[in-house]
Write a structure and sequence with these properties.
549 residues, alpha/beta, 12-stranded mixed beta sheet, 3-stranded antiparallel beta sheet, coiled coil
Length: 549
């Protein structure tokens, strides 16, 4: 006679599902359950080992775990002990770790990351092979999503100590830096901005990584905070550490590529360097820092291009930050468009360029402004020793802040009393600089040439048309006065759609021809449409246009 322990797993799964659904239909037992935390199918846990596994899979009880580093090492040890028993680690699919970010810059964050990685490595190396952790999504975020103004100032937080050996985590298939349940606007205003070089140190830790999503990378021109009176303040960010982080990212990525440390299975890459909207409402008549000198091209942009080329399985690429055209094409003129295929698997390309370039120039100019002449807007100021803070441990206080030129400055807040037309007419740039924008679009076309499987692409420049405080005065939502300037393309069944949102501006005939040739490589006709603003295309079928993340 066959016992309950000998039943096939498929039949046991159906029994568990049927019992739970039958209990749900009974209203009386449903009322009793409100006073009893134990579900009816929990009684099946002790029937047999097969029933136990079926109940665990059906309820998903151990699929997700939250680790709060603020509760100390004992909490992390209890997590390891709990999932080391009864094959619970095999059911674990999602780990969320909340870091405690100190008010001053120290090594506590690195210690928290090391303890987390060590705990996961224990679950990967359990004595019983069938109980080990095999595949998991790891999300690392801060314990708060608030912005504390001065804490964000020139902060360069590292995740790992390069001198400390970290165990490899082969079970991590997806790694995310940031809150998965928060939108981009909230994530990128957090004070816990990370040094971009941290990414290069993480690559050898996750050899089987398939998806990398980082939203805490620090590369903002200024930081937004709150004044004591409740107004909006824009705080000067020291440009020296910002320049160091870009060059450090370049060195780290190139070293990882040279040593073969880029995960071969990486198929999705999403990196946000700073914030696309926050900080754009500053005075755009100011001179920007040159973060490229003494190089000719931006090291961050070129290293990101090499990073995306180092894995042949990359299918989705989303990048947002202060870039130049070398993000999409190599600076060598001998590499002609369409000469070879370098992104063989890429299907979705989404790129957001900030209006300012890394060399201190602008991609856009103010309405009615003449083209740049005599070096105007064509080069930023050199970053020297005056652009590093005197000390790294910055306390929250009411003392003046050192500005980029080494002088003490106070918080700059928007003046609500000034009329909107006087406050905003000289702040924002909306007209493209033809030579610079055409160069970026040409590089975009060259990249599309080398993506035979590309089905969707977009290139955006986020423009801010009204300052933050004006939204309250005008009684309108933020999106009504933001604009995504750029072009998007999508391959459909019988046609490919190209949608231009450029406020009447058109690229040069040569660049336009290159883009059309790249879009038509699948043999389908290209249908182009032009619009003034993003809102003009929201009602179009297909959802090809999205606000850039």
């Amino acid at each position: 006679m066959t016992g309950l322990g000998d039943l096939p797993r498929e039949l046991v799964d159906k029994i568990v599902r049927h019992i739970d659904q039958a209990q749900e239909e009974d209203e009386k037992q449903e009322q009793d359950r409100q006073h009893d935390k134990k579900r009816p199918i929990d009684n099946l846990l002790l029937v047999s080992r097969c029933f136990q596994l079926a109940v665990e899979d059906y309820t998903g009880r151990w699929r997700s775990a939250l680790i709060c580093q603020g509760q100390g090492n004992q909490y992390l040890q209890s997590f390891v002990d709990y999932y080391s028993r009864h094959r619970r680690a095999t059911h674990l699919e999602h780990i969320v770790c909340e870091l405690v970010i100190p008010e001053t810059l120290d090594a506590s964050v690195e210690a928290q990351i090391f303890r987390l990685f060590h705990a996961i490595s224990i679950l990967e190396t359990l004595p019983d092979e069938v109980s080990r952790l095999e595949s998991v999504e790891l999300e690392v975020r801060s314990s708060t999503d608030m912005c504390y103004g001065l804490w964000h100032l020139s902060r360069q937080q590292m995740l790992l100590n390069p001198r400390r050996q970290v165990p490899q985590l082969r079970s991590v298939k997806c790694f995310r830096l940031g809150h998965s349940d928060l939108d981009t606007v909230h994530q990128l205003s957090c004070p816990e901005a990370l040094d971009p070089a941290s990414l290069a140190l993480l690559l050898p830790v996750f050899p089987n990584l398939e998806s990398l999503n980082a939203s805490y990378l620090h590369d903002d021109l200024c930081a937004e905070g709150q004044t004591e009176s409740g107004g909006t303040a824009f705080l000067e960010v020291f440009q020296g550490p910002r320049k160091d982080s870009r060059h450090g990212f370049n060195n780290g990525i190139r070293t990882a590529i040279q040593h073969g440390q880029v995960p071969a299975r990486l198929s999705e890459l999403k990196l946000n360097f700073g914030h696309a909207i926050k900080g754009r409402q500053q005075d755009q008549t100011r001179t920007l820092p040159n973060l490229v000198h003494p190089r000719k091209h931006d090291p961050l942009s070129s290293s990101l291009r090499l990073f995306s080329l180092s894995t042949t399985n990359l299918r989705k690429l989303t990048l947002s930050g202060c870039f130049d055209w070398t993000l999409l094409a190599p600076p060598s003129p001998s590499d002609s468009p369409g000469a070879r295929c370098v992104w063989p698997s890429l299907e979705d390309l989404q790129v957001v360029f900030y209006p300012e370039a890394p060399d201190g120039s602008w991609y856009f100019q103010r309405q009615g402004q003449r083209p740049p002449e005599d070096g105007q807007d064509t080069k930023g100021y050199d970053v020297n020793m005056e652009h590093w803070p005197l000390y790294w441990r910055q306390e929250v206080s009411a003392t003046p802040i050192l500005s980029g030129n080494g002088l003490a400055t106070t918080e700059r807040s928007c003046d609500r009393a000034r009329p909107t037309r006087l406050r905003t007419q000289h702040l924002f740039r909306m007209a493209p600089v033809d030579s610079k924008v055409n160069l970026v679009l040409e590089a975009f076309a060259m990249a599309c040439f080398r993506m035979p499987r590309l089905r969707k692409s977009a290139l955006w420049f986020p423009l801010q048309l009204v300052s933050e405080d004006d939204f309250h005065d005008l009684g309108s939502s933020r999106d009504e006065y933001n604009s995504a300037w750029g072009v998007t393309w999508m391959l459909r069944s019988r046609i490919s759609d190209a949608l231009w949102i450029t406020q009447g501006w058109k690229p040069s005939p040569r660049v336009h021809s290159l883009l059309r040739t790249a879009w038509a490589r699948h043999g389908l006709p290209v249908d182009e449409e032009w619009a003034e603003f993003l809102d003009d295309l929201k009602s179009l079928d297909g959802g090809a246009v999205e606000w850039p993340a």
